[in-house]
Automatic annotation (TrEMBL):
It comes from Salimicrobium salexigens. This is Gas vesicle protein GvpQ. Signal peptide: none annotated. InterPro entries: GvpQ-like (IPR049647). Residues 23-125 are annotated as: Disordered. Residues 34-52, 87-111 have a biased composition (Basic and acidic residues).
Length: 157
């Protein structure tokens, strides 16, 4: 209730100077009444516009503050969730690393069981000879390449 009275007093304070000016300008009482009404009307309109503008600006600033708070809350929420996701990902990677280690160990144990006591391992594709390493016809020894008796070292030599 007091807020409405305060607005009325401010409105009257803004309108009264306009009414005083209108009364000073006019000589005729009817003309004074008419000018006073117009001055009061203009004063009320200006005050209403200012109050409306102030109200809109206040609401806009409230909305801006609310939006800033919401953005801050969302940023904190996203940061918190990203930390949780990072922790879960790290745990998953650690579990996967442990499982790979277990598989490697079981594979080594299987290799030992299959190979027995020998150190011979299963051959890989890298261990196979390539086409370039196969001897050609020119590389095969002929009777001329065989050493004769004079080339064989003796016991006395």
């Amino acid at each position: 209730m007091l807020e409405g009275a305060g607005k009325f007093v401010r409105l009257a304070g803004n309108v009264i100077p306009n009414v005083k000016k209108a009364l000073k300008k006019s000589d005729d009482p009817e003309e004074a009444v008419e000018e006073t009404r117009e001055a009061a009307k203009e004063g009320v309109q200006e005050t209403a516009k200012e109050q409306f503008k102030a109200s809109i600006q206040e609401k806009a600033s409230d909305m801006k503050e609310s939006l800033e708070e919401q953005v801050q809350e969302n940023a904190e929420y996203v940061d918190e969730k990203s930390d949780e996701a990072e922790e879960k990902m790290q745990e998953g990677l650690e579990k996967a690393g442990e499982k790979v280690k277990e598989v490697k160990e079981s594979g080594e144990q299987l290799q030992e069981k299959i190979g027995g006591s020998s150190t011979k391992k299963v051959k890989h594709a890298d261990d196979l000879k390539s086409v370039n390493e196969i001897k050609g016809v020119n590389d095969i020894k002929t009777p001329k390449d065989i050493k004769g008796v004079p080339h064989i070292p003796s016991y006395n030599d």
